[in-house]
Amino acid sequence: MNRVALSNCNNGINGTEKLNRDSLPIAANLSIQEVTRNIQFYAHYKERQFTTRFTFNRLDWKIAYKGTWADKTLVDKEVELNITVDVDSTF
Which residues touch 68 (CB under 8 Å, ≥6 apart)? Predict the structure, then answer.
């Protein structure tokens, strides 16, 4: 299993801005296999949790299938990532 982390000295979150009561745009650093890139996504609040789902190009993080060129092209470039963050206090 590969390590996936939102990393930075500030818990990986570079910035947030409250959009409305149940939506929050987030900028963060996504680190996978020693490659870190800035990402931006919207998290939605419901029942004391923020959740989001987004896709990214696996080749931007050097995630590759080991095999022949034909094998590598058969694997989709897009990876879907689902994140859920539990909230301890009232938002």
Answer: none
Give pTM, 2 decimals.
0.61
> Is residue 91 a part of any domain in this protein?
no
CATH number at residue 61: 2.40.128.110
Pairs from 62-65 (Cβ < 8 Å, separation ≥ 24): 62/33, 62/35, 63/2, 63/32, 63/33
Q: What is the pLDDT of residues 11-26, one digit of tens each?
A: 455 655 655 678 888 8
Whole-angstrom CA distances from 49 to 44, 69, 80, 87, 88 are: 8, 41, 19, 6, 9
Pairwise CA distance, residues 45 & 31, whole Å: 24
Contacts (Cβ under 8 Å, ≥6 apart) of 57: 77, 78, 79
Kindly report the CA angle at 39 between 14 and 70, in degrees rounded to 5?
Answer: 155
